[in-house]
């Protein structure tokens, strides 16, 4: 329903699970797909003002700009993700998202470095595995991509369905039905 894509619904969902970053990522991605990315942008911009020492809000704002994806948004994403890391240097979510930023801006080496760091700080951090899988898949290194997807599935709580879908899509690309 349309009412599910308004401010009140978004706030209700994140307040019920404020520390669950899988929920934040899922909502951000869903709102972006529905053309309502301005809602999480507004919410997290206000949250940063009200919580200037909270790395989670800087991460969520940075991730939202990353998902929005325009060149201007990517620059703002980087600033917020780096602030999250200044506040919490071993924050795997921010490291992984910064890796996604670097890949989006053409710096593969820094992308790989950040995804690997994210996994060092949390060996079971599924988003870093999924980012690496997507990277290897884009390079047509299917064996490495498959390993990363399988590890992502093993460690994933909220992203298993995405990992399975992407793995299946990769098999179709490979004509390995």
Descriptive notes:
The protein has 177 residues and is mainly α. Helix content is 76%, strand content 0%. The protein is built from ten helices and no strands. The chain has helices spanning 7-16, 21-33, 38-50, 55-68, 71-87, 92-104, 108-121, 126-138, 142-155, 160-173. Helix 5 runs antiparallel to helix 6 (92-104). The longest helix is centred in the middle third of the chain and has 17 residues, at 71-87. It is globular. The model has no long low-confidence stretch (mean pLDDT 90).
Concise structural overview:
With 177 residues, this protein is mainly alpha-helical.
SSE topology:
Elements: H1 7-16, H2 21-33, H3 38-50, H4 55-68, H5 71-87, H6 92-104, H7 108-121, H8 126-138, H9 142-155, H10 160-173
Helix pairs in contact: 2-4, 3-4, 4-5, 4-6, 5-6, 6-7, 6-8, 7-8, 8-9, 9-10
């Amino acid at each position: 329903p349309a009412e599910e894509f308004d401010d009140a619904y978004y706030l209700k969902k994140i307040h019920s699970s404020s520390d669950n970053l899988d929920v934040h990522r899922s909502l951000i991605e869903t709102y972006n797909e529905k053309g309502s990315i301005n809602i999480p942008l507004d919410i997290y911009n206000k949250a940063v003002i009200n919580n200037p020492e909270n790395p989670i809000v800087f991460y969520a704002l940075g991730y939202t700009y990353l998902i929005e994806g325009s060149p201007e948004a990517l620059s703002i994403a980087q600033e917020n993700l780096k602030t999250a890391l200044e506040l919490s240097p071993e924050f795997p979510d921010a490291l992984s998202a910064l890796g996604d930023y670097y890949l989006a801006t053409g710096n593969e080496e820094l992308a790989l470095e950040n995804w690997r760091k994210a996994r060092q700080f949390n060996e079971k951090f599924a988003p870093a595995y999924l980012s690496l899988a997507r990277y290897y898949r884009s390079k047509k290194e299917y064996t490495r991509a498959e390993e990363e997807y399988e590890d992502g599935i093993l460690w994933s709580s909220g992203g298993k369905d995405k990992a399975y879908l992407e793995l299946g899509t990769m098999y179709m690309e490979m004509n390995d039905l």
